[in-house]
Amino acid sequence: MLNHLFQFIGQSFTVLVFAVIIILLIVLILTHISLNKERLIFPKFMLAVTDLFYSPLKHLSKLLGFDETMIDQMSIAVRNHINKNKFKNTDNSKKIIVLPHCLRSADCEAILDETGLVCNECGKCSIGVIKSKAEDMGYKVFVVPGSSFVKKIIKNNDFDSVLGVACYEDLNLTMIHLSDYAPQGVLLSKTGCYQTKVDVRSVLDKIGYYDTKNKKEKSKPTADLEINQELCVKKDKHNY
Ligand code: SF4
Q: Is residue 43 domain-shared with residue 121, that is, in the same domain?
């Protein structure tokens, strides 16, 4: 009797492991197709499996010779897609932006306090540009040196949505961790530990900067608009 029970448990376990491996292989193939065709396939299913089996999927992906960042890319793209409207419809005063301190210039003189880097918008790097425009729109902006600061931000701030900037793996893991806050993510365009880069336009686009700017311009009288546009072109040396 006991032998039969152990045999049954053993067989069930083998079938289960086999089924999980098949599912992971299907997810890897669909991820590969999705990224190549730039079209998300079964996004919610893919996200559920990726969240549940993140490490095994990464190992299997590496073992089979797929791009190491493939799983993170897909997961970030799906989360951006699923949370887009919720993030957009959240009031800006309830949204935060978390930037990595590796974006700072080598000549940055900002000090670090318990909230992260205190950027004075000196203009030497993209952090100052994003911070200035985002804070004008009502966002809170944090520049953090590591995940321990992210935990403090979550604990000490009342917010409903978050936008993060980071490299593939850090961004994906942070978005998984903050999945209750309709996270949006923008990948660094140049990764590393020092003087990294991000496409500022992508960040501004995600926070609705261009939509707000267009709305403001449309509501102005035509003569004012022409004068202001001319001034903007002259004044905004970054031309964002
Ligand atoms: S803009 Fe801010 S983060 Fe960048 S170099 Fe200046 S003070 Fe440092």
A: no
